[in-house]
Structures are given as structure tokens and as C-alpha cells.
Amino acid sequence: MNNAGAIYVKHNDRAAVAAALTAAMAARGFAPAAHPPGAWSGKIMIREKRRRLFFLLEPRDGWVALFEDPRYFGERALAVELARALDTEVAWIEVSGNGVAWARGHYRGDEVLEERYDEVETTFYGEYGPISFVYDIETTPDEFIARLALPHSELHYEAVLEGELPADAGEPLHLAFERP
User: Fold this and answer.
1) pLDDT tens per residue, range 61-73
2) CA distances (Å), 125 to each of 1, 3, 41, 42, 100, in order?
3) How far apart are CA 121 and CA 111, in angstroms?
4) Is 148 left (phi over 0), alpha (psi -120 to 50) or beta?
5) Which of 27, 24, 33, 12 has the alpha carbon at shortest distance from 170?
């Protein structure tokens, strides 16, 4: 995983994960929208987005992978909410280009199993807002991914959009939301 973020939900029913995601987005004031894949919001920082696009992959090894456009972030608060709503394990990860600056969380229901991040307000790719990366040289993103057996760690929203899926990934489910 490089310059990417993702949320992984331990669940064998992608439709249930999609329903929980839809409910979470509705609670944030977003409504389902008919935007096609790649209909970019024009914003990187999650709190500034008025349009949010997701790909959800079929469960693999018991995990449903969620990728949001653009590839840079996964929303920690959304990961926590999905863990609670589905009473299951959820992993959240964000990795910068060097793989040393990264953030992660592992949750089960209301329980925080592991979490390492430092929210900092800064400029990132021309936008100002919060990022979660911390410098962690004791654990690598690959070790975290391997320990939890997270699937599709090489993917992100744009890769799915461009059809760079492994043959066994199945058809991705695209969900779009917009806030007035």
C-alpha cells in the first residue's frame, strides 16, 4: 500500500456492509447519488468533500475492502462507526508514499484493539486540512496488513476504477453519496 487509505470490514455479506455505510453517510447528511465511478468530488480532505464515492469489493478471506476516492485517505471515524454498527472487526489504514509515515486502527464493536495516528492540520497536495500520519519505524504497513490478513492491500479507488483487479476480486460495488 502506497499513498493510499482503506477500510476493511470483517464480514461475509457485502450488502450488509453497504447498508451500514449508507446509514453512516446519511447520519453525516449525505444522500445516495447517481454519480458514476470516477465522478470526482474535486476535494481530497474528507471533511471538505460534498461528494463521496466508494468501491466495496466482495468478501475475501472474510474481509470486505472499502476504497474511497481519491486514494489518499480512509476515514477513521467511519471505520469506528462501521465496527459499532456491524458489531465486527474493522481495520483502517492510511499510508504515505514512504511507508514510514502512516496511520492505523483496528476495532471490534465498541472496542479499540489497536490505534496509532496523530491528527495534524497541514497542507497536503494543495489542500489544507487534517491528516493522520505518524512516523512509525517499529511497525510497517505490510506487517499490519499481514497480521490481519487484509486482502487487496495493493489496490485503491483509482486502481479499481481502472480495472486493475485480480481475477478473483469479483465485480466491485460502487456507491456514491452527496451532501447538499
Assistant:
1) 999 999 999 888 8
2) 18, 11, 15, 12, 18
3) 27
4) alpha
5) 12
